[in-house]
Amino acid sequence: MDELEGETQVGGMDEVGAQKTIPGKESLKKPAGRVGSPLLVFLLFIVLIAVGGFYYLQSQQRMEEMRVTVDSLKKEAEAKTRTIAKLTSDLKNKEEGLQQANAEGERWKGEAETMRLALAQKDSEMAELKHMAAMKSKLPKNVQALQSKLAQKEIEIARLQKAGAEHVEWLRLLSSSTAHLIRLTPSKEGGKAAGVLLFDPGKPGALFYGYNLPKLPAGKTYQLWAIKDRPTSMGTFQPMGDQTGVVKAQKAGGLEGMKQFAVTVEPAGGRFQPSGPTYLLGAVAGVVGL
Questions:
Q1: Considering only CA atoms, which of 173, 166, 174 is closest in space to residue 101?
Q2: Are 107 and 115 a contacting pair, CB within 8 Å?
């Protein structure tokens, strides 16, 4: 019984050891599985953060590019708006200038017709005077008086012919689609003086008409200038009794690219460069001081 009991106890102990050993192995395996799962979750979490950060940075970069593009488009739109406003203002000014030029043209046409009639009358008077001069042998006492009168009439006709030629030139320029009408406004010294100048770019001729011109002291004259990079003289003139002055100027090479026109007061005979005060000034595009 003791042996049996001992064997039974040994066998019982083995079974108990076996039972204890099996649960121990299982307990060692289960914790290993639990340790691996949090590590995997942590790694996935890190990957998700990295991917999210990458897409976030990309989205921020794209938003910055879009902001830069929008700012650029806004600036371009503002620039185009300013350009359109300037072009609209220039068009309005040109339309007003054209209306004024048309009004001036109508007035000059009327004056040209008056001049033509006056020339026809003077031609008739000239023919009559020549006929009377031919009879000087019959009227010896009146020959000298007739010759003097004829000379005066010839001078007057020459003046009228010159004025008629200037009116024709005005009409030619006014009817040209490429002609420019420049208004010259007075400085402080110029007082109420004003003037207009017509020129056709690329052609040598230009016509200037000034009015309300102050009378100049002895030894002084008005001088007209065309200004590009530096002033170029276009002639001198003296105002007539009605305070008007006309200059028919010629400039070799034309007036292409001229920026301004001015009238100054210079010593008699004029100067190669302006030296006196500026009385009138007009600009083709923008006004710049002389």
A1: 174
A2: no
